[in-house]
Amino acid sequence: MLMEAKNTINFIIKSIICNIKIALEYKKSFVMQVIFMMVNNGFFLIFWGVVFGINGGNINGIGMKDIMYLWSIPVISWGAVHFFFGGIKELNTYIISGTLDTYLLQPKNMFFNIATSKCDLAACGDLVYGTILGIIVSDSILDFLMIIVYSIIGLIFLASIMVIVRSLAVWLGDVENIAHVYEQSLFATFTTYPEAIFGKGIKFLMFTVIPAMYAVHFPIRLMEKFDLKIFILVIVVMIIYILIAKYIFSKVLEKYESGNNIAMKG
Questions:
Q1: How many helices (H) and strands (E) does the chain have?
Q2: pLDDT above 80 for 190
Q3: Under a CB-based contact definition with an 8 Å cutoff, are residues 192 and 181 in contact?
Q4: Distance CA 94, CA 33 (A)
Q5: Which residues contact 122 (CB under 8 A, 6 or more apart)?
Q6: Whose C-alpha in 23, 51, 67, 117 is 20 to 30 A from the C-alpha of 96?
Q7: Partners of 62 in the beta sheet?
């Protein structure tokens, strides 16, 4: 078991390094995409700075520091998932085109083989931007380390829901639009705006269908004041999402291996 885990970790690291080397083959394009993404994210921070400036620096107890956390933890998570594990975003395409056959034949952990098969270059801009914000907003090295820990938790939540939603392709066919709305429009929106602006109905979704509360908002509360009960709750819910994603992915493989029509179209 330990040897298998070690081999999987080594494979993930080597795959990520390989993707980074490929990205650096086109340095100008890579740098431009990173800069563009950072500038794009920067406009949102400027917007909030203007809003707080007009309202005396505080809106219903929410300050600029809270916004910087909101544009640090989830942005690092988002950037890390898409830069290091961009293959998850292609899972539905692999299912529909029959490309999973390639990964089924390889003697590697199939999920991580797929996850590290692609690299979204622009996402490095999110990763760098979020990290810089994390450094700026941190009062100490411990604070910054906690931001990294909570960002990893957010990464796991995001990766899990990406697997869950994109795996639906084995039953529904093309789910790209559904996945885009769920992952980007919904998950990203609910994690980069203050919790206080959302009504009860939206918050119910954030506690259930879209785990934004557990992935980002609870961790931000923990940054301000650590509460062991909330931390344990976040970890438990994270594990539940991991298990759901793992179960659905295993069902996808069973369905795919049985020769479903969607896969045979590839």
A1: 17, 0
A2: yes
A3: no
A4: 25
A5: 33, 34, 36, 37, 82
A6: 23
A7: 59
* Phi, psi angles (nearest 5°) of residue 59: -130, 110
Per-residue pLDDT tens over the stretch 47-58: 777 777 776 666
Look at residues 127, 150, 147, 152 and name the one whose alpha carbon lies nearest to residue 135.
Answer: 147
How far apart CA 14 and CA 170 sit, in angstroms, is 29
The pLDDT score that the predictor gives to residue 168 is: 86
Residues in the chain, how many?
266
Signed CA dihedral, 137, 218, 75, 80: sign only = positive
CB 128 within 8 A of CB 84: no
User: What's the alpha-carbon Rg for the chain, to the nearest Å?
Assistant: 19
pTM (two decimals): 0.84
CB 266 within 8 A of CB 173: no
Amino acid (1-letter code) at residue 200 = K
Name the token pair of 172: 């529904």
Tokens representing 114 are 């797929």
- Burial annotation 78-106 (CB, 10 A radius, 16+ → b, else e): bbbbbbbbbbbbbbbbbbbeebbeebeee
> By three-state DSSP, how is residue 219 classified?
helix
pLDDT tens readout for residues 59-78: 666 777 778 888 889 999 99
The rounded distance, in Å, linking the Cα atoms of 128 and 131 is 5
Provide the 8-state DSSP code for 105.
T
Distance from C-alpha of 238 to C-alpha of 230, rounded to nearest angstrom: 12
CB atoms closer than 10 angstroms to residue 164: 18
